[in-house]
Amino acid sequence: KTMSSEPMLSKATKDALTKVRYMVPPMLEKFHKGKQQPCTLPAKTTCLHFKHRSIGEGGSDWRKSGSHVICEPEAAQVRTPAPFHPPPPPPLTPLPLSQPRSSKPTLPTLWSTPLCANPINSPPPTKPPKPSPAPSLKRSPACTSSSSAPGLGRDSLMLETCARVIVEAKKQNMPFVLDADGLYLAQSRPELVKGYRECILTPNVVEFGRLASAMGVPTKELGEEGEEEVCAQLSRAMGGVLIIQKGAKDYISNGEMTMVSDMEGGRKRSGGQGDTLTGSLGTLLAYRKAYMDRIWDVEGDLSREELLMLAAFGGSCITRECSRLAFKKNGRSLQASDLTEMVPVAFETLIGEKEGSKL
């Protein structure tokens, strides 16, 4: 089968993308920088580069206001790794943890109230950990969304830091996305996200199986209709957390409503492609906040829950179109960075600009 030159969209997909377009703010002269600033959170390695570039290429103004990354000191050093082209942009703002990894780690005190007593998979300490300065969401009051955690790893200090960031995000009723190693937290400590309906999980097939097993949801083969229902069951088991089950088709469910993203994608699965999804979600969640704040004369009357579903659906469609375009251009040599280059094209093709944004 030959890949089409243009995306093939079903009527249901076109209708959903029309609603996604409603929540994208026009570029008006009255807006100032930082109007929709996303904040991206715990990460450990330079694969966060893909996610942050996806946020910017999708149109969010992080390049103006700074995008914040909580990370280890080594990861805060801006380098130009060979596979990356172009290098990470300067506005990327690392907020390194205070202790270098060569010293004995202590739990960072991110906020005024203590949270979990011990890091994950660590023995109980003989005495309370010594508080140390560390970055906080409160350093960025304009923060509108968060995402964890490409390259987070299984380091106990980073995982504990991520857990504390999640708790603080919940206090502020902030939406957040958990991907990759961030899903390990949801699997091992589901109480962190259970029942929080502003959370988006983005598991692949293997990660979905682990989450379902942890929550006691059977995942035996039931055909296409069964996969859709299992996704909804897992969401219900987690208290209505929104799940994007990535695969040949992406199933998106909050336990009550399920959408299917079935646009054609590329045929090579390269590590790091999920970061394009989390970055796109970060941008659309920032746009969602702008829509709910009514910073312009909005169209439609979309509810908070519907907007979250639409942001997830839009992020999935943009990522699948990036994959299709990148594969069409690069074939089997495709790398994750190739998807990032296609974000502006995919965004313009699927969502486009509002009339008031054009010169």
What gross morphology would you assign?
Answer: globular
Order of H and E elements: HHHEEEHEHEHHEEEHHHH
Task: Give average pLDDT, whole number.
Answer: 76
Approximately what portion of the residues adopt beta-strand conformation?
A: 5-15%
| Whole-angstrom Rg | 20 Å
Number of separate strands: 8
Largest sheet: 6 strands, mixed
Instruction: Report the structural category.
Output: alpha/beta
What does this structure look like?
The chain has eleven helices and eight strands. It has helices spanning 11-22, 48-57, 62-65, 156-171, 181-188, 205-214, 223-237, 273-292, 304-330, 336-341, 343-350, and strands spanning 67-71, 92-96, 146-148, 176-178, 199-201, 242-245, 250-253, 258-261. Strand 6 (242-245) and strand 7 form a beta hairpin. The protein is globular and about 45 Å long. The model is unreliable at 43-51, 62-66, 80-91 and 98-135 (pLDDT under 50).
